[in-house]
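hey so i finally got around to running the thing on that chain from the lab meeting. sorry it took forever, my laptop kept dying and i had to restart like 3 times. anyway pasting the input first so we r on the same page abt which one it is
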Amino acid sequence: MMSTKANGSPELALLAEGRHSDPHHFLGLHETVTGQVIRLWRPGAEKIYLEVLGQVVEAEKVSSLGLFEYIPACLIGANDYRIYHQSGLLAGDPYAHLPLLGELDAFLFNKGCHYTLYSVLGANVKETGTQFAVWAPNARSVYLVGDFNHWDGRLCPMRSMGVSGIWALLVPGIGQGEKYKFELHTQEGYVRIKADPMAFYSELRPLTASVVFDVNAYPWGDGGWQKKDLAGPMNVYEVHLGSWRNYGTEFPNYREIAVDLAKYCKEMAFTHVELLPVMEHPLDESWGYQVTGFYAVTSRYGTPADFQYFVDHLHQEGIGVLLDWVPAHFPTDDHSLNRFDGTALYEHDDPRKGIHPHWHTAIFNYGRKEVANFLIASALFWVDKMHIDGLRVDAVASMLYLDYGRKAGEWIPNPDGSNYNIEAIEFLKHLNSIVHERFPGVLMIAEESSSYSGVTHPEGLAFDLKWNMGWMNDTLRYFSKDPIYRKHHQDELTFSLLYAFTEKFMSVLSHDEVVHGKGSLLNKMPGPDWQKFANLRLLYSYLLCQPGKKLLFMGAEVGQWNEWDCKGQVHWYLLQYALHQGLYTLVQDLNRFYLRQPPLWEIDFTWTGYEWIDFSDADRSVISYLRKGRDKILLCIHHFTPEYDPDYFIKLAHVRRVAEVFNTDAAQYGGSHQLNGEISPFPEGFTIALAPLATMIFEVEFADA
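ok and heres what got predicted. didnt touch it at all, straight out
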């Protein structure tokens, strides 16, 4: 058959120069004056074969630049022929099918409100193949590279979808497991090879290719799962999946961890797990906080389907799943978001706004609508496709302030001179409003260490909870002091109650406090070993008696002597020693006690659920208060010295009955067993045995109740 001889076409020149933004206009199946022509672009090839109407035929090379043509003998459709890729794959022609991207998709994305963006951008598996789409508005051209084309950046130019800045290509025959990246040609003529910002799966580090994965195929079995709301108990076990338990391999699989972790949380009476980031990240030692794949579970522990099983199994066992999520910054690794299309696309160009001074990472440009959309859709993705119950948003304080971690002259103030990052504040409000609107019951939790007001207020940032970093820092500083000096620092215990109900707080003893030379919780405690363990029992019980929800980092329950090591595991072997086993038993019993006692969680966020009895007994380092539920009242007494007082008077009038229901000094926990038996109240109060370095909890009934 005669060729159309497109050798001199301007479009061929654009292809050869890497500047063609609409390859579908030239390549693929096209009508001509005399009939039809199939044009194929394969630089470096001498021959190309294709299958037309079931017959294998050879295309004619019409240009030394790499253009091939075949003229069908009769009229055919786009589905009547297939081409051979370099990998040997026989599949439909990518240029015979226009990408499936609607104008509304592009419009919503550019407006910053395409909340299912993950169904449009990235690699989405279709019936006939996979559609690839990437946002790169400043690129001169974009090419898809992968296994199927031997990573040859000349072969698969993508189509510009106009002013949206999106480039797309539908590749028939490509499915789950295919590795790929995007090759971006910048306006300056540079070539950047980038992983897909919206990939659902990636190669195991140090490899960085994105991997096609169908996240819609998992058969969920958690239909009966009811998300736990803030009206109930919430006791969270914070976990780093890679170092919780040794499974004999470099990394365990999500599925095997799921079975063991769910069983463990039920035995230990934790209501939720909170996972240190499982989003893809290049550096193990970042613990996941330097994210390169905001839509991809890390391949260290398995596939997206394996992670879906993890969540599914925990839900079926009654355990909620929270994830740490990091929209504050991203690493500058060359394969990731940094200067993605040759420009500061996701970040600010000016380092005074675009580089984090502490972590030397890039800061997102929250004022760019598409960037805000990218992040909001990421949050929604984990809820929608992975069924998680909430996100703990990391490093919120660093987002709120333009001068965070910066000296004078190192930041750009607002026109009025203020230091608030207005764009980040609006982003967080938008994020929380949309998550709550689309997924009621999902918890948004702020790790926020500043005094910014209204973090959990509906008219403020509208988070559901805020980590009480002030309580954690003050409490640990107090506990680190020798008991003989604690009477001079009573205010470090009581100060947090001045602001305890200004936000909805979560009291935490997190991973942050057992790394970077801070020592383990046990090693922070003063005195000989018996005092260290007694202090730790006192600390954990003090945590659970506080208003607000609770969180404890893994390893705390066994009393580790060493800091957490992300390459190790929890020091389970310590449980062979009596003091460690006693501490472990205490945590288990205390957690169970917490779940059974509504006064410890029913009214967590107002003064209605809390009443001081005495915060002024600094000389004996004792504080006492009531925790009130709707139908029951508990008296919590904490004694912070190792002295024993058999006749300590509690001034609490009109008590009809009082009975001790928990004492951390019990022998089974490693204590001296100075417990309280029957107590006879007087009109003005009653006398108790004040156990050393202990928490004593009493049920109280009042005469007028």
